[in-house]
Amino acid sequence: MTRRRAGRRDGGGDAALGPVKRPTTPAVGGERHVPVPDPVARDYLLLALRLDQRIAGLVDGYFGPADLKAHADMEPLRPPSRLVDDAAALRARLPAEVEEPDRRRWLDVQLVALEAQARSLAGDGLPYLEHVAACFDHRPTRTPEADFDAAAAELAAMLPGDGPLAGRIAAWDDRFTIPPDRVQRVTDALVPEFRRRAEALFGLPDGEGLAVSLVRAQPWSGYNWYDGGRRSRVDLNTDLPIRAADLLSVLPHETYPGHHLEHAWHEAHLVDGLGRMETSVLCINAPECLLSEGLADLGKRFAVPPDDEATILVEVYRLAGLSRPGDAAEAQATAERQVAISRALAAVRGVAGNAALMLHADGAPRADVLAYLERRLLSTPERAAKRLEFISHPLWRTYVFVYFEGERLLRRWLEMVPATDQAARFRRLLVEQLTPSAVVEEIAAG
Questions:
Q1: What pLDDT score does 19 carry?
Q2: Which residues contact 168 (CB under 8 A, 6 or more apart)?
Q3: Which residue of 77, 180, 345, 356 is most buried, as measured by CB atoms within 10 A?
Q4: Percent of the chain at pLDDT above 70?
Q5: Of 192, 268, 255, 181, which is closest to residue 224 (Cα–Cα)?
Q6: Mean pLDDT, residues 161-168 taken together
């Protein structure tokens, strides 16, 4: 993969040979052209689009050839058993038809995931844990309960008082909920700064950009809709409380250097530069998700450097009208306390995965899983019930692992190199066709 100086803006292609001229075809939307896919990429894109017609939501984004989308939309639905055969047959072709090792490996693990989902659709699915491992090229593990006990003890010390700890955490959080009419103001101040940091560390592809909007009546707190053409729409849901500290995680996750920058660089380098058209479809419950969500969470350290987090939070308080004018010392002390609380709460992110394994692998009653979530999430009963709803959903019951497991895996990989080299290593996630098992191998190799 090519390497570029920090801050350079580039459209992809081979830096030594110049842009490679390839035949193109209209992309969805009719305003762009993309490289014509080779036979393997063509059949991969069709397989993903056909599966999406059977599993609504499996395709999270598509910015590839318009004619393939039209073809998949117009043809009769394929039986699930035929989709299983299609995935297996395409995977068998890879050794003979795909020369590049990284591309071949990426396609192989993606096809394992799509075949597993097709098998489940056909009534021949794997047991839950094996299905999750097939979908993500990575086998999740349970988080030790002792980790949650330690986090609870740390939080209890930071938030002393009467009543349940969950109630004390909720009361603290309520103090720092940004009024809905101030959210856009805070966002408009933060995103350009995150973009500036990303440009300095990783470079920005030519023509990239995004718009942040406030929405309502959605089940998530934030979402990135990647439209292709190196453009994203990012929505923040104002029906849910938007807390100052949470915004310092959600915005980098969805914008810079998270999902938007990842997708824009993948399009610029892998699609437009290398012609790897299989990356013009974004599939849910596939290995790419584990790395995508992991890098989006991990990227916060570059957008909000740990040593600067409290100072940035003080500015958020000011913009949101959450601090008293002129009381800088109090705002700084409060922000430092919030940073410590947020880091302690990060330890309970593994609760959802444990709960999913209880429900789907162990066969625990839903009432027991709900009680476990209420106790371990250190949150309200309403939030625990929403989390149970998420891990029970046919699509998200598998996806639940990608955030915690992805960030944990990539954090180990990133921290193997000195701090001065970590931005360069992180950039590999933006421009290379990596897989979870390849990352594991690099960790094992030291």
A1: 56
A2: 159, 161
A3: 356
A4: 95
A5: 255
A6: 93
| CA angle, residues 52, 286, 278, in degrees to nearest 5 | 70
State the residue for tokens 């350079």.
8
Residue 428 CA to residue 413 CA, distance in Å, equals 12
pLDDT at 353: 97
Is 356 within 8 Å of 397 (Cβ atoms)?
A: yes
Nearest to 391 by CA among 345, 354, 347, 348: 354
Cα–Cα distance list, 206 to 10, 25, 210, 419 (Å): 5, 20, 13, 28
Residues with Cβ within 8 Å of 178's Cβ and at least 6 positions away in sequence, in order, are 186, 242, 243, 244, 247, 316, 320, 322
Structure tokens at 322: 């959450």
Do the beta carbons of residue 341 and residue 327 sit within 8 Å?
no
Token pair belonging to 167: 């109630």
- Mean of per-residue pLDDT scores for the chain: 93
Global pTM?
A: 0.93
**Residues pairing with 283 in the sheet:** 59
Provide Rg for the chain, Cα atoms. Answer: 22
User: Is there a contact between 228 and 32 (Cβ–Cβ < 8 Å)?
Assistant: yes
- Give the other-Cβ count within 10 Å of 18's Cβ: 8
Rounded CA-CA distance 175/181 in Å is 16
What's the mean pLDDT in 391-420?
96
Average pLDDT over residues 44-56: 97
- The amino acid occupying position 127 is P
Cβ contact 237:224 at 8 Å: no
pLDDT band, very low/low/confident/very high, at 325 (cuts 50, 70, 90): low
Supply the pLDDT for residue 222.
86
Q: Which residues contact residue 123 at a Cβ distance below 8 angstroms, ignoring those fewer than 6 apart?
A: 80
